[in-house]
């Protein structure tokens, strides 16, 4: 069961960045780590992954120091205020007739683990006890060859082997737990969140450059740490950066590069076992197939993704994409079934999926996007009346009426619905909001929809209607400017970084 109290308390706390958004997991983890450093002088690392497990209820009773830090940072008085409850075993376990007690009181400070988290978190590993622990490794190896004259032969032979094995264990620990300042990781993650949430207002070329830089920064940090929690966080950040590059590449008219980036993001998701990122990345591959005129491939890819997708918003998005693909095929029954499943999946969402819900922005999937996708599918499959209703629902729910790519795309599809109903003037009225779109914001999702409007204007009913011919010319000029702009970007090398992950 999810720890709703902890998640809600975090979301009620404003981001220290001053953005006005709720505090992210990365920001909360960083604040906890800073508190622990200031109060204990120890490098105790609470990772974003572990914090996610707290919020998902997988860890119900964290270590005492982490509970204290969370109470202070989030401004509550008791553990219960954060939904923490003691587990039957508590935090320690005592083995009868044993010299060891496993718990915070008996471990070196640097080796205290998160409750339920088997990852050690030292910046510098503790050294083994014993006189030889202070010797250089070469001296240790040399001294271990000494053979006691009174020791049996077997014992004497075992001594050097035991020392060597101990030395190897501690050396591996030293390299395996090498860590970096968590501030750097939090900075990378915050930049990714910013790009995702501002994608709607940023030119795709700008996102391409910035996301590539963020990805490369994550790559560099990955080479500097061996700590499992940090590796997981950085691999997630690299994967999300590739996902952003996939979107920007597609919007710049580079579908092959977009596919390569989405596949890279999916591989990162496989490495760290992140079902949400895998669902989003595979869903993007389905969308590229859809826009490339391969709806059956889009359905097949969406079905594969649904088999392993998390419940809630991630599944809702895949069902909605599937509906659009079936609409191109012309199967009304499958469209209706997919849209119903999308609505049901979204209604069941608890809002805790990291990519679709918590990072959100370009990755987000809520009621507005779900309604737009449903409207697009319904208009495409021939149900212009219901499709128009869903699209008007999108426009009414989205902030503003003349800005935002979600609204623009909805208005173009609504224009298609109006043309299907032979309401030419109503279609023109919807399109008047589109013409002011800056050329660097004319994305493929926008111009591709306009191409469909232009195709609709080729219907015999508009053949002798001069205003229809004028509208077709206007669309040709608008999309042509966008094509020229993308070609200039590619020729200038701005978009070339999208070609390979």
From TrEMBL:
<feature type="region of interest" description="Disordered">
    <location>
        <begin position="1"/>
        <end position="23"/>
    </location>
</feature>
<feature type="compositionally biased region" description="Low complexity">
    <location>
        <begin position="151"/>
        <end position="163"/>
    </location>
</feature>
<dbReference type="InterPro" id="IPR011990">
    <property type="entry name" value="TPR-like_helical_dom_sf"/>
</dbReference>
<feature type="compositionally biased region" description="Basic residues">
    <location>
        <begin position="1"/>
        <end position="10"/>
    </location>
</feature>
<protein>
    <recommendedName>
        <fullName>Transcriptional regulator</fullName>
    </recommendedName>
</protein>
<feature type="region of interest" description="Disordered">
    <location>
        <begin position="143"/>
        <end position="164"/>
    </location>
</feature>
């Amino acid at each position: 069961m999810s720890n709703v109290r902890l998640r809600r308390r975090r979301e009620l706390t404003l981001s220290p960045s001053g953005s006005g958004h709720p505090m992210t997991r990365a920001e909360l983890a960083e604040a906890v780590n800073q508190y622990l450093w200031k109060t204990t002088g120890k490098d105790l690392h609470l990772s974003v992954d572990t914090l996610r497990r707290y919020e998902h209820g997988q860890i119900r009773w964290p270590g005492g120091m982490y509970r204290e830090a969370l109470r202070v940072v989030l401004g509550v008085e008791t553990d219960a205020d954060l939904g923490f409850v003691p587990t039957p075993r508590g935090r320690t376990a005592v083995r009868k007739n044993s010299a060891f007690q496993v718990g915070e009181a008996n471990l070196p400070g640097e080796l205290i683990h998160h409750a339920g988290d088997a990852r050690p978190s030292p910046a510098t590993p503790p050294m083994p006890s014993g006189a030889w622990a202070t010797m250089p490794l070469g001296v240790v190896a040399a001294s271990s060859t000494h053979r006691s004259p009174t020791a049996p032969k077997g014992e004497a032979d075992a001594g050097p082997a035991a020392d060597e094995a101990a030395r190897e264990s501690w050396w591996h620990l030293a390299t395996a737990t090498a860590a970096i300042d968590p501030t750097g990781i939090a900075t990378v993650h915050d930049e990714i969140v910013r790009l995702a949430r501002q994608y709607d207002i940023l030119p795709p070329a700008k996102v391409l450059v910035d996301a590539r830089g963020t990805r490369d920064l994550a790559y560099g940090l990955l080479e500097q740490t061996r700590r499992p929690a940090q590796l997981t966080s950085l691999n997630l950040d690299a994967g999300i950066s590739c996902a952003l590059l996939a979107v920007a590449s597609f919007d710049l008219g580079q579908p092959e590069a977009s596919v390569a980036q989405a596949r890279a993001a999916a591989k990162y998701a496989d490495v760290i076992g992140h079902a949400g990122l895998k669902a989003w990345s595979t869903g993007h591959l389905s969308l590229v197939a859809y826009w490339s005129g391969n709806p059956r491939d889009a359905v097949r890819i969406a079905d594969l993704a649904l088999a392993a997708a998390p419940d809630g918003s991630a599944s809702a998005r895949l069902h909605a994409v599937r509906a659009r693909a079936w609409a191109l095929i012309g199967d009304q029954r499958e469209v209706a079934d997919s849209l119903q499943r999308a609505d049901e999946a979204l209604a069941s969402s608890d809002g805790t999926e990291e990519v679709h819900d918590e990072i959100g922005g370009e990755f987000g999937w809520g009621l507005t996007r779900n309604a737009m996708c449903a409207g697009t599918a319904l208009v495409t499959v021939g149900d212009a009346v219901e499709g128009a209703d869903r699209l008007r629902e999108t426009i009414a729910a989205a902030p503003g009426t003349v800005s935002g790519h979600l609204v623009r795309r909805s208005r173009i599809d609504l224009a298609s619905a109006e043309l299907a109903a032979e309401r030419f003037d109503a279609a023109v009225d919807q399109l008047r909001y589109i013409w002011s779109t800056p050329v660097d914001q004319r994305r493929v999702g926008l111009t591709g929809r306009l191409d469909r409007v232009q195709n609709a204007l080729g219907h015999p009913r508009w053949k002798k209607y001069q205003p229809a011919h004028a509208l077709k010319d206007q669309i040709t000029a608008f999309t042509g400017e966008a094509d020229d702009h993308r070609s200039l970007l590619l020729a200038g090398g701005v978009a070339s970084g999208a070609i390979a992950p």
